[in-house]
Amino acid sequence: MDFDIIYRDFSPKIFRVCLSYLNDTDKALDLTQDTFIAVWQNLHSFKNKSNIGTWIYRIACNKCLRQIEKDSRIKKMVLPTQVEHNNIDIENIQEQKYIFLRNCIAELPELERIIIGLVMEDVPQEKIAEIIGLSHSNIRVKIHRIKKKLTQKFKDNGQI
Amino acid sequence: MDKFDEIKNLWQSHKIEKTPSVTSIKNAIKNYHSKKKRNIIFIILFFIFSIFVWIGVMINYKSHLWTTRFGEMLFIVLTIYLIFIKLKLLKKKQQEELLSTNDYLNELKKKSQKEAQDQSKLIIFLIASVSLFLYTYEMFSYSKIRLIIGYSTLLLYFVFIWFIYRPMMLKRQQKKVQNLLNKIDTIKNQTNEKEY
């Protein structure tokens, strides 16, 4: 298995999963790097029993959870307050929505942040269940709840 | 389109921060490995050097009492024990990272609980104390005053370490471990929620 190809294909996805957990770009970049160091070290032990993506996501999720030892609080991003209404461009609105989304995710409990990060990357529910180590039905329920929570927050704030 | 799909599209379409190039990741891996190797070599060399120093002391210092020799031997045993512990720690690689999140949390919890009950520091302290008491006996035994002052100082030192410094460190360590265990439990409770 070629590490370069794995890195090229998965690094943006892993970065986004880490970002959904940490809500901090620099820390997410560090964690992405740590994940791929672990991938490199353990690549020889990877047996094609599971999908390589599932395997990498699992490492990334555990790296994220390891952060609890560092007692880092999830920081919130500040929404831009001064928007000139007669000159609102689409990019600005999208940026605001994106920051709002990141803050909504940051408010979720740890496990939900990990699950939603994987959902956003289109990881199938069975794979998420495998990564987290819970039953498929349990994960399905959790995903449903998280989606509902996020959608509701967006609706309440008039973001959709 | 589903409302959540809009949210997902927003997440996926956002321009992400550029992740490092594969070359810089490989460099980071290389640095990580060489740092690890350097640490192992440094630890081994340091302990080997300590053993040689003790052997040198044993050869040069002509002791007349068995207590000195026994103290020296204990110091060497302690040094070997420390090498063993250090290497074990370095060798213990992140195999747990390959587990599922749920199993990983269980493993992390087990490890933290084990850490809280770790007896190796107690063993090290006891061996070091006994060695020092035995080793210094010959030095102090020449006069009664020397013996009293020497051993009183040593005793005071051990009392300070054992009854003041150690409980302080233990308290700090336990607080840290307890915090971690609480956090692990909180996350574990999130996995235990009922299915319906």
Task: Walk me through the topology.
The complex is a heterodimer of chains A (160) and B (196).
Chain A: H1 3-22, H2 25-42, H3 52-66, H4 90-106, H5 110-120, H6 125-132, H7 136-156
Chain B: H1 3-13, H2 22-60, H3 66-91, H4 101-116, H5 120-140, H6 144-192
Average of per-residue pLDDT values of chain A = 84
For the largest interface, the chains and their residue counts are: A-B, 61 and 44 residues
SSE string of chain B, helix = H, strand = E? HHHHHH
Structural classification of chain B: mainly alpha
Unreliable stretches covering 5 or more consecutive residues of chain A? none
Distance between the termini of chain B: 27 Å
Q: How would you sum up the major sheet of chain A?
A: none
In DSSP terms (H or I, runs of 4 or more residues), the helix count of chain B works out at: 6
Average pLDDT score of chain B: 82
- Supply Rg of chain A: 17 Å
The shape of chain B, in one word, is: elongated
Structure description:
- The complex is a heterodimer of chains A (160) and B (196).
- With 160 residues, chain A is mainly α.
- Chain A has helices at residues 3-22, 25-42, 52-66, 90-106, 110-120, 125-132, 136-156.
- In chain A, helix 1 packs antiparallel against helix 2, helix 1 packs across helix 3 (52-66) and helix 2 (25-42) packs across helix 3 (52-66).
- The longest helix of chain A has 21 residues, at 136-156.
- Chain B is mainly alpha-helical and 196 residues long.
- Chain B has helices at 3-13, 22-60, 66-91, 101-116, 120-140, 144-192.
- In chain B, helix 5 (120-140) packs antiparallel against helix 6.
- The longest helix of chain B has 49 residues, at 144-192.
- Chain B is elongated and about 90 Å long.
- Chain B starts with a helix and ends with a helix.
- The model of chain B has no long low-confidence stretch (mean pLDDT 82).
- Chains A and B meet through helix 1, helix 2, helix 3, helix 4 and helix 5 of A and helix 1, helix 2, helix 4 and helix 6 of B.
